[in-house]
Amino acid sequence: MTLFRRCVTLLLLTLSCAITVSAWATPKTVTVGGYSFPPYVVENHGDYSGLVPELIDTLNRLQGDYEFVFVPTSIERRYEAFERRRFDVILFESPEWGWQQIPKAVLPLGILDSEVFVGRSPEANSEGFFTDLAQRRLLLVRGYHYRFAGFNSDEHFLRTQFLAELVPDTRAAVEGLLLGRADVAPISQAYISYFQRSFPDKAQKLVVSTIVDQQYKHTALIHPQSPLDLNNLQALFGLLESSGELARLLSEYHLSREALVSHAGVPQ
Length: 268
Known about the structure:
The protein is built from nine helices and eleven strands. It has helices at 3-23, 51-62, 78-83, 155-161, 170-178, 189-198, 200-203, 230-243, 245-252; strands spanning 28-34, 42-44, 47-49, 66-72, 89-93, 105-120, 137-141, 163-167, 184-188, 206-222, 256-257. Strands 1, 4, 5, 6, 9, 10 and 11 form a seven-stranded mixed sheet that branches. A two-stranded antiparallel sheet has the order 2-3. α4 links the parallel β7 (137-141) and β8.
């Protein structure tokens, strides 16, 4: 065999091995933290559904470089768990919610939601009902950040500054309103839409104000040691967009959209 043929044969063998290794490469596992935040994450006796689990399943179906795994965490300790790298990524976090000093990379998702005040009919139909929260009994979610409270999520502060009762999640806040345990609860527009679709009879008993407490400008937080970096996560959301799956999910969960940014944030 000539030297040239030997070189060609060696090159072909090398390429064949590289293709074989690539084909059988194990996808990198990326853990995604989530807490009870309907309809983004809906917890039911240890089972999790909602936008985040569905988005994870969709990403796993569309590509094979990464395997995304959902990891439950608590509302109150999610940032501490993130710092300790109990998970690599957490989705749908708004900039005012207390994570600015945590080491991370930040990807704006261009996905919006808002929070409005909700009451119970018929008393909440009266004029000016939602304008003076100091006079209303409030149902607030433990660990959530509210603009009217200066984004202070401390339970003692909320109980002493307002007529507030703390509940475990948004679902409990809405059910509490329906039972007459409070006058007002701040609820996300996405959850209101979900509740109206899922429980139309109960939803008729609610009064949804036009007063917006805050707008969620959703972002993804990526741990500095995550196997998935910021640019790759942005590319994956681009894949969701080009496949039409992102539009489907946002429509299903009644979320609005900004144009995806072309340049992501930098690690902070």
